[in-house]
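Sorry to interrupt, but I need a hand with the structure work. It will help me judge whether the discrete encoding reads sensibly. Write everything out right here, beneath this request:
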Amino acid sequence: MDHSYPYIASLTREPFLFYEIRSTAKLMSEGISDDAIVKEIVEQNLFQYPTEKSITRMAKACIKRLHALEDDSLVSAIASQPTDVAKQICLYALMKQSRLVWEFMLTVIGEKYRLRDTSFGKIDLNTFFMRLQEQNDTVASWSDTTITKLKQIIARVLVETEYLDNLKADHLNPVWLHPVLENAIRSNGDTAILPAFNCFS
């Protein structure tokens, strides 16, 4: 992960989007061009959004996130694997695209797994953002509303990927890294991120 890469708050507009990313991955794995994918999503109203403009914007966001994987086999896996596997790959795609999520998953979640500390609560999200605000001018400039929304979205991502049972959960579940994703992470040279998936070998 390139750490000169800026922190961006686009997560507030483009959260986990599992359903949309999976629909986009199905089209992408058919080998059609990005423009043709956007056209198809808009014409079929695949996302069931109210306006064409919002569909176009989100289709482009999904394509961008899938490209962040830099791995066609993972795009195909999102399209074809069972939901739990596809969701885990979508999390990796989000991490690859968002420095914020990458660092949260590594420094908070990965660290808890490493220490076998299963406790989890709002304090973990609050501490992470407070530390970032102290260290980074961009994050320091974000409004309280933005920070609050980012915390909510990260918590929802953890629920959707089964790290947490629900938004009120006070402990982390022991997640299991699916082999299709583990192999890709290793061959992409991203082994530093394995602790985020409770993988230490």
The chain has a mean pLDDT of 93. The longest helix spans residues 52-68. DSSP finds ten helices and no strands in the chain.
